[in-house]
Amino acid sequence: FTLETTLKHELCHLLLHHHIADSRLPRWLDEGVCQWASGGISELMATHGSNALTKAVVDKTVMRMRDLETFPRDEESIVLAYEESKNLIEYIAGEYGQQSIVRMLNYLREGYTVDDSVQKSLSISLAELERTWHGYLKGKYSWFSYLSNNLYPILFLAGALLTILGFIRFLKKKREYVDEEEGDGL
């Protein structure tokens, strides 16, 4: 992450909180929009890599949107919450257009609830948005993508196991050879 990205991210927070009451702005929307608008990832994700979402989809542990209203306290869950928030906003922008996010924020500024803002902006309910987004995640992130993201550790582990098995086989053959030599010497 760079200073420029961080400044854009934090300025975005200031703008959002200046125009929308904190009680109306869920954390997933706040963080997701700020990451999306700044074109970068949060400092937390930059230091931990960005594999948490793929792992959560594969493990079927994706957080629900209501769990993202406020972020969890443990570090692993926070990283996942940031990734999910950014991905959800990217999904909305990709499926419904960037203007839909602006409309959603405008409705929140006018005092509408999150549910009503989503309904008016996207013409679907918040529950339907969550359902379609989870479907999108399942299609995008699979075992294949998880394995490809972890290719080097998997190859390293496989190489280590093969080396150990080869060494065991070598010791076994050596013992058999020594036993044969001792048997021939009698």
Describe the structure.
There is one protein chain. The protein is mainly alpha-helical and 186 residues long. It has two domains: 140 residues, no CATH class; 37 residues. The protein has ten helices and no strands. Helix 2 crosses helix 5 and helix 5 packs across helix 6. The model has no long low-confidence stretch (mean pLDDT 88).
Number of helices: 10
Low-confidence spans: pLDDT under 50, at least 5 residues?
A: none
Overall number of structural domains: 2
- Arithmetic mean pLDDT: 88
* Structural class determined from secondary elements: mainly alpha
- DSSP strand count: 0
How would you characterize the largest beta sheet? none
Q: What share of the residues does DSSP label as strand, in percent?
A: under 5%
Q: Please state the overall shape, judged from the principal axes of the Cα atoms.
A: elongated
Topology, element by element:
Elements: H1 3-19, H2 27-38, H3 43-48, H4 52-59, H5 75-96, H6 98-109, H7 114-122, H8 126-140, H9 143-149, H10 151-185
Structure in a nutshell:
The chain has 186 residues and is mainly α. It contains ten helices and no strands.
List the main descriptive attributes of the protein structure presented here:
mainly alpha; 10 helices; 77% helix; elongated
